[in-house]
Amino acid sequence: MSIISWIILGLLAGAVAKILLPGRDPGGLIGTTLIGIAGAFIGGWISARWLDRPIATDFYDGATWAAAIGGALVLLVIYRILFGHSRSR
Questions:
Q1: Which residues of 53-64 are buried (b: 16+ CB within 10 A; e: fewer)?
Q2: The dihedral of CA 43, 59, 2, 18: what is its sign?
Q3: Residues 11, 33: contact at Cβ < 8 Å?
Q4: Can you state the angle between helices 62-83 and 3-20, rounded to 10 degrees?
Q5: Quick one: pLDDT at residue 59?
Q6: How far apart are CA 42 and CA 79, in angstroms?
Q7: Element (H, E) at 75
Q8: How far is it, in rounded angstroms, from Cα 89 to Cα 85?
Q9: Distance of alpha carbon 57 from the chain centroid
Q10: Which CA distances in Å does 8 have to 39, 80, 82?
Q11: pLDDT at 88 over 50
């Protein structure tokens, strides 16, 4: 897949991650979108590097989508932990 395909996949993975993990994000829509793109790249890299699952050349490969969404979810959780606003009583 080309870099443009990974960016599009990241945009969609970020949207799916936001649906699966609802709530307010400190970065809003733009932050969640960027996290989705980064999560797609990181999920694909982890999949290829440590899970012995090479990155597919097909955009519609289920394992590629799962890696991208998983990466976006992990980054979104880390982002909320690090930059989430604490609630005052």
A1: beebeeeeeeeb
A2: negative
A3: yes
A4: 60
A5: 66
A6: 14
A7: helix 62-83
A8: 13
A9: 19
A10: 12, 23, 26
A11: no
Structure tokens at 77: 């959780």
Helix ranges, 1-89 (H) = 3-20, 28-49, 62-83
The full length of the chain comes to: 89
pLDDT band for position 54 (50/70/90)?
Answer: low
pLDDT grade for 85, boundaries at 50, 70 and 90: low
Model-level pTM?
0.75
What's the CA angle centered on 36, arms 79 and 67, to 5 degrees? 105
Closest C-alpha to 74, from 14, 9, 28, 23: 14
User: What is the amino acid identity at position 58?
Assistant: D
Residue with tokens 């797609």: 40
DSSP state of 23: S
